Amino acid sequence: MQAIAEQKSIYLQDYEARSAQLDEPKWLARLHRHGIERFEAQGFPGRTVEAWRKTDLTPVLREHFVPSGGPGQVDSGLIEKAGALGKAHRLVFVDGWLDPGLSELGNLPRGLTLAPLSEYGERLPAVIQDALGAFIDTASHPFAALNTAFFRDAIVVHAARGATIEQPVVLVHLLTPGADRRAVYPRAVIIAEEASQLRLVEQFIGADEPFVLNCPVAEIVARQGANVDYYKVQEEGAGSAHLGAVHAEALRDATIHMHSFACGARLARTDIYANLIGAGADVTLNGLYLTNERQYCDHHTWVNHKAEHGTSRQLFKGVLQGRSETVFDGLVKVFEGAQKIDARQENRNLLLGKLALAHSNPRLEIHADDVKCSHGSTVGQLDDEALFYLNTRGIGFDDAQGLLTFAFADEMLKPIRLDALYEYERQALFQRLPGAEMVREMS
Amino acid sequence: MALLEIRNLRAKIQGVEILKGIDLAIERGETHAIMGPNGSGKSTLAKVLAGDPSYEVVDGEVLYQGRNLLDLAPEDRAREGVFLGFQYPVEIPGVSNTYFLKAALNAIRKYRGEKELDAMEFLQLIKERAKSVKLDEALLRRPVNEGFSGGEKKRNEIFQLAVLEPYLAILDETDSGLDIDALHSVAEGVNSLRNEERGFLVITHYQRLLNYIIPDKVHVLLNGRIVKSGGKELAEELEESGYALFEDAAA
Among A233, A251, A278, where does a domain finish? Predict the structure, then answer.
């Protein structure tokens, strides 16, 4: 208990030292203060907190992560990855600091606003100020609270009413060895106005050496009839921790398609909150996690059907190698009056490592009587019969494993509606497959 | 040298002995049929020859073109030209029939030091072979066996046989569950693939398949042993009298 009390005071001290130096707009100072108060009220979760029971935070609690003080040196490998998705409207942050040189903000189309918060000063439009921090639940998510207390710049993405943004928006967060034992708090607010269309990728990339605490928060609002694709690519280096949260708010007839691809960091967790608050809202949450060695990867989801005629689809798949451990924990909650909704939730795990461990906990809570809900989960190994069948056709053991694993994972890649991202994730998958050379030729 | 020579083969699964001393020799170009009731060990023999790791060989040897077959991993048996047509072909979701066969064919060609086929050559080959065994071309693009009817699955096995061109083809109850039309076309496919180099071991419960695939020799398998061997007339004899006639011999 003492250790926890001490942690609180350290982060509070950091906050106080920092806020004394900052000269920021009052509303923003209030938001930061709100964040630290929320954090102080709960502290880091112990293992008695149900939602955090399986997440072993010891490595994070042992350190004191001071907010990153400036951008570190970016090597060519990271730069290459930062540009891997090709033509895009791109903002690149290095250790939490905007890098204008790596960013590509030329030729922004009409209807798209893409800028760091720091550019606005006092003149921030109300629509953005009202949304930033309005949705994410800082009361029950300590890392979202820390983010809210410490984020030093936020990314503002806004699609105007009726605008169709052709090129994807790509937000890149690079972590360098310079951020070792530092915390980075990426923050994004994404607003799609009525009937607009927006595709967005948020990439978290890092060097292997540093132990960075990366705590991103993204808030997404899709207003009536808007259509948002949000892809999260989480592949920090092997030494880091990622504790992130995404909140999506779907209004009437809005469609939000989310895809989480997680294969990086030593300890990674993404909590996804989706509220279907308008009638006819349609939310898809897809996820693919690939883990190895002693990686820990966790997805928690909360899908709240608060209006009628909503549709939600969740499918998360995991491929576990080595001694890795994963969690999928999802709650679909149907509120009173949310009739005629259709919710599906599924989690499938493939254990390639004999010592790998997958926890799966899909849950339903239904307070309406005319709904369609289903959920399911599986944890299993490759089918011996299928392996033998492939062997009898001349395909060796590694190749057969690779082929079956690829087929399992590819189901999650197929729905990606950005060709460059599809290709990028396929390559990341190949890198981790046994027999990848053959599979690469095949497909 | 025989194509396949099985000597005193004994095998068990989960501690239970199923094959209790099998002796059998197949020459190049010959088609042999193995008949027997359920539980006699027919499928076990097929699986053991293909290298299914769930079976344990406890005694005997199998020579394939003079080499010890049992020493080879299942994929190497396939690359050496042994093919097993499954009684229950396995569904492989997410892997298209075409990709699957290309992987198989190129693995085999690579092993033999032959040039791998490029995409065009390969497509041409599978289209031609699909036609020859009357496989609907739409099935080429579908995931392997997924959602195929029973007849389509069996036809797909024969199609794979036609593409992979093995020296020894073992067909495990390829006739089971087929209606007469499907049976006819599967048999036609097999007959078109018979030649002086290739041997067939056709395993069946019923004689009717052997009306269409005329074997050179017929063996009766009972309780893990071959109790009688003869020409094609043995199959007809069995059809009339049933297996009871041989049960004394097996005991």
Answer: A278
A273 and A388 housed in the same domain: no
Cα A357 to its chain centre, rounded Å, is: 21
pLDDT tens across A53-105, in order?
A: 999 999 999 999 999 999 999 999 999 999 999 999 999 999 999 999 999 99
The answer to whether A389 contacts B74, with C-beta atoms less than 8 Å apart, is no
Confidence (pTM): 0.90
A398: in domain: yes
Q: How close, in Å, is residue A439 to chain B by CA atoms?
A: 8
Q: Cβ contact (<8 Å) for A388 and B74?
A: yes
Closest by Cβ to B104, choosing from A384, A395, A443:
A395
Contacts of B93 in chain A (CB under 8 A): 407
Q: Do B206 and B175 contact (CB within 8 A), yes or no?
A: yes
In a domain, A346, yes or no: no
Nearest residue of A to residue B118 by CA position? Answer: A441
- From start to end of A207-310, where are the E strands? 213-214, 217-222, 227-235, 241-250, 255-262, 267-276, 282-291, 296-305
Q: Does A388 contact B107 at a Cβ distance shorter than 8 Å?
A: no
Residue range A127-181, pLDDT digits in tens: 999 999 999 999 999 999 999 999 999 999 999 999 999 999 999 999 999 999 9
Q: How far apart are CA A361 and CA A55, in angstroms?
A: 14
In a domain, A355, yes or no: no
Look at chain A and report how many structural domains it folds into.
Answer: 2
Regarding whether A256 and A398 lie in a shared domain, the answer is no
Q: Is residue A35 part of a domain?
A: yes
